[in-house]
Request: fold
Amino acid sequence: MLEQYLPILIFLGVALVVGVLPLVLGGVLGPQRPDAAKSAPYECGFEAFEDARMRFDVRFYLVAIVFIVFDLEIAFLFPWAVALGDLGWFGLASMGVFLAVLVVGFIYEWRRGALEWA
Amino acid sequence: MPELPLLLEILLKIGMVVSPLLLAVAYATYAERKVIGYIQVRIGPNRVGPRGWLQPIADAVKLLTKEIILPRQANRYLFLLAPVLALVPALAVWAVIPFSDGWVIADINAALLYVLALSSLGVYGIILAGWASNSKYALLGAMRSAAQMVSYEIAMGFALVGVLMAAGSLHLGQIVSAQQGGIWHWYWLPLLPLFVVYFIAGVAETNRAPFDVPEGESEIVAGFHVEYSGMAFALFFLAEYANMILIAALTALLFLGGWLSPFEGLLPEAAFALPVIGWLLGPGIHWLLLKTAFFLFVFFWLRATFPRYRYDQLMRLGWKVLIPVTLVWIVVIGLAIGFNLGPWFS
Reply:
């Protein structure tokens, strides 16, 4: 069972090499001539003022939280969908209840404006 | 510990997937410039080699010999780790993609789960790049990108759930063979809304136009990779194109019957018994490549045709259109399976 996953492990190793090798080659073959202007963070030609790690809109955080709820829902749906053939109407009905509860939550979010960006 | 010949065999197989993939990525950039060029009544790259055939190689050599600039205020190690972290999952996903019946490196049962898991790792590379650069534009691009990718991942996941319900398996080979029986049995027809949603979400997941607000050249100059140069930049580019080809291949596998032939059931049996023509008409890797190339062309076509979405429009499309559509269609499929409807769910 687990030996089927061996090629994946090796593939990850190969992918890591394919990822790191160009960086090393680029570092060796390319010049290294940093100067004050070149290594300054880009800001339309100005000297950068204040730190770049500034405060950002809380809505990004909200999206992340809502995402976790829905992603978990997908994680529940995956095994259910695979086994649906054996579960029959009972499986369909129980998932229907589960989805209905989540849809109520989704409508609540929608009405509260959690999905608005304007 | 597995013996040496087995390891060599696996490495050989990986090479047979990775090297054509990297070549395909290089020439996808060329094809994109040519396609967009002709759509805009230009001829695209035509200087390097005959008809510009050597352009991707010239680009690669140029990027290889350019300085990798490390911004003064960046976190050096995270800054260099980010492009690698973007590329590794984009390549490693290909371990479970079947190219024809049984032509797959790792024949695992949970293939689709693996695909979903790895393709959602790509967002780490992007957000890390934006953070480690310590530049305002990079951070803005990374925030936008992360929010966009997680939003469209939900629509994408729901679309996949529909496919799983219809096929009853996470194994990509079995999903394809569940679509056997001719062009009307492929899932594009019974799962049409999910097919459309999946492809749109795929375009958004790869940050391609018209959903390229994370890069948005005209607003935030290049978004998360504004501080990257040389090979570090090239790695992001590679990852984006590898992901694009992956989405195209997955759409072909999940909704267009993968390597199955569109002529199945349409032509008389005798036609498939002909020496060469029969092989061309029958199922095989060439059909998968053809379908993948078609979806890649659609990627380029979209970029040449549509202007960029505004950010609030983009989030509205993801949350208020795509997700409700998929939810409704999952219920429809559930009922169709319950009633053993038609040729697809019986």
